[in-house]
């Protein structure tokens, strides 16, 4: 099964992000992420065997992560897959630390972090036709995060669907 570690937005923020996705879609086209799929990916783990997935779920369920607040104040786009996202003007240092700490621990499970620059972001649109985000409303949202989620990704006809397999306890 295909797994990743993520933060899931609090409900009020999820709704705000959904409204932004609607505005962005009107401007940029493409496929809007369903509100219940909005997330911040911290570590993409790829294909994981069932037994290992169970061990990972237990590991997530038994731990807690330090709490933090992520300020969302920028629109962005990844050209090649046509992604429009919201995130920070600069990568949030607490999230970068969390990302690095998780990958260190994941090494104990035999996962290797492929080198690449971590840009914390929430994908709002995929396969966008226009990547111009100028003119979209300016942002100043705060995401208070407390818990880590282990999420399974299913590929379906109309895009990916997600199911949360485990959550860490509140810090
Ligand atoms: O958080 P977002 O939605 O931007 O694009 C995939 C998605 O990112 C990404 O992991 C998240 C959950 O599916 N993803 C998919 N395949 C990947 C890969 N091979 C990947 N990230 C890194 N390497």
From TrEMBL:
Its EC number is 3.1.4.58. It comes from the Bacteria. This is RNA 2',3'-cyclic phosphodiesterase. It comes from Halomonas rhizosphaerae. It is an enzyme of class 3 (hydrolase). Pfam families: 2_5_RNA_ligase2. It catalyses: a 3'-end 2',3'-cyclophospho-ribonucleotide-RNA + H2O = a 3'-end 2'-phospho-ribonucleotide-RNA + H(+). The active site is at 39 (proton donor), 121 (proton acceptor). A motif (HXTX 2) lies at residues 121-124. Keywords: Hydrolase. A motif (HXTX 1) lies at residues 39-42. InterPro entries: Cyclic_Pdiesterase, RNA_CPDase. The gene is thpR. Belongs to the 2H phosphoesterase superfamily. ThpR family. Hydrolyzes RNA 2',3'-cyclic phosphodiester to an RNA 2'-phosphomonoester.
């Amino acid at each position: 099964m295909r797994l990743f570690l993520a933060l899931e937005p609090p409900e009020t923020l999820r709704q705000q992000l959904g409204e932004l996705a609607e505005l962005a879609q009107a401007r940029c086209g493409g496929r809007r992420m369903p509100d219940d799929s909005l997330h911040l990916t911290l570590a993409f783990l790829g294909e994981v065997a069932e037994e290992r997935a169970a061990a990972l779920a237990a590991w997530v369920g038994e731990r807690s992560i330090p709490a933090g607040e992520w300020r969302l104040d920028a629109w962005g786009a990844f050209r090649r897959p046509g992604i429009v996202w919201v995130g920070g003007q600069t990568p949030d240092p607490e999230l970068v630390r969390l990302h690095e700490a998780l990958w260190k621990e994941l090494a104990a499970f035999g996962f290797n972090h492929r080198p690449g620059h971590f840009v914390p972001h929430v994908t709002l649109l995929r396969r966008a036709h226009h990547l111009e985000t100028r003119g979209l409303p300016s942002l100043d949202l705060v995401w208070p995060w407390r818990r880590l989620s282990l999420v399974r990704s299913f590929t379906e006809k109309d895009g990916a669907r997600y199911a949360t397999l485990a959550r860490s306890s509140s810090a």
